[in-house]
Design a protein that fits this description.
This protein is α/β, with parallel strands linked by helices. Helix content is about 30%, strand content about 25%. The chain has 2 domains: about 240 residues, Rossmann fold; about 70 residues, no CATH class. An 8-stranded mixed sheet has the order 6-7-8-3-9-10-12-11, with helices on both faces. A 4-stranded antiparallel sheet has the order 2-1-4-5. The protein is globular. Bound molecules: iron/sulfur cluster. The site of iron/sulfur cluster has 14 residues, from loops.
């Protein structure tokens, strides 16, 4: 049986059901993530794509229980990881899981690494938090981890400070910290966006190698569909806090259903593109305080919008086996004229 079919048969490692996360703006809570449901299977790499402000990062911070206190909160839904309901856990219980069973890496390692501590100190801190280990063993493990993420001269780097390293090396250090306790799930939020193209490719290759060696699941958040094509098994496209399309990576690229996905794909630069200007999506994602109350949230940017799109809210529903889209073009049993088949 193929690896893909085996994946489909396994129970999910992570199950998110009807997640809603809201932020307090001037005393009123607005949903940044709205009715989001999905699963991640063991060893699966799930991509989450969309423009800035689509709710991708808020969704991952909700899973990690890292929303800014007093500002953001999960208002409804369930997050089940490895059979445990994360929403019902105390801060102490979550702390045991975070960094050990679920880890996260962010876009800019300089903001995640502490500038006043050495690389070794920061790696060893994670090890001490989750493993019963001596100082000597922790230092040896820190050096081995640095080596495993492709850092040369790890015995020297372990005593250096973040500002002494290049951006690519800092991101490698962040990956070493994230995988220190061999997590079952890694959430990577735009892990290569701040890096130049060559280093980006190296970091993505490293992540893929580690995922295979450690049998890890990955949620990869990115605005870059090229990264998704390289890395992912499944993809969720998010727009204005909601999932608007979900399917496997090949289907998304060859048979996108949602007009937003089609426009995102059209915005990917192509090597043989003779047109000087890349197609880009007109308009901007609505802000939290300006979200349409009814209808499709993409309606005012959608080239296929119909009058009913402004009044009827599309549900995420199956358009083909294993392919879901939230678009009124697919709400009847047959696709309407002009729709991808
Ligand atoms: Fe466009 Fe209407 Fe579909 Fe929304 S529901 S994506 S506005 S066609």
């Amino acid at each position: 049986m193929s690896e893909k079919k085996l994946l489909l048969k396994e129970a999910p490692l992570l199950e998110v059901k009807n997640l809603e996360t809201a932020f307090d703006i001037d005393g009123t809570y607005y949903n940044a993530v709205d009715q989001v449901s999905f699963t991640v299977k063991p060893r699966q790499i799930v991509g989450v794509v969309g423009e800035s402000g689509c709710g991708k990062s808020v969704m991952s911070l909700s899973i990690m229980q890292l929303l800014p206190k007093g500002v953001g909160k999960v208002t409804s839904g369930e997050i089940t990881f490895d059979g445990l309901n994360l929403e019902k856990m105390s801060e102490g219980q979550i702390n045991k899981i975070r960094g050990k069973d679920i880890s996260m890496i962010f876009q800019e390692p300089m903001t995640s690494l502490n500038p006043v501590f050495t690389i070794g100190y920061q790696l060893m801190e994670v090890l001490f938090n989750h493993l019963k280990i001596s100082k000597r063993e922790a230092r040896q493990k820190a050096i081995a981890l640095l080596k495993s993420v492709g850092i040369s001269r790890p015995e020297k780097i372990v005593d250096e400070y973040p500002h002494q390293l290049s951006g690519g090396m800092r991101q490698r250090v962040m990956i070493a910290i994230a995988i220190a306790c061999q997590p079952k799930l890694l959430i990577a939020d735009e892990p290569t966006t701040a890096l130049d193209v060559t280093v980006q490719a190296q970091i993505l290759e490293l992540l893929k190698d580690i995922q295979e060696v450690n049998d890890m699941s990955v949620i990869l958040i990115t605005h870059d569909l090229g990264v998704v094509a390289e890395m992912c098994d499944e993809v969720m496209v998010m727009y204005a806090g909601r999932i608007v399309e979900r399917t496997d990576v090949d289907t998304l690229f060859y048979n996108p259903k949602h007009p937003y996905t089609t426009l995102l794909l059209g915005a990917i630069p192509k090597m043989d593109d003779e047109e000087e200007r890349l197609s880009s999506i007109q308009g901007i994602v609505p802000s939290l305080t300006n979200m349409p109350v009814t209808g499709c949230r993409f309606a005012n940017r959608c080239p296929k919008a119909m009058p009913e799109c402004f009044t009827i809210t599309p549900e995420l529903r199956e358009t083909d086996p294993g392919h879901e889209a939230a678009c009124l073009l697919y709400e009847t049993s047959k696709p309407r004229e002009g729709v991808n088949k």
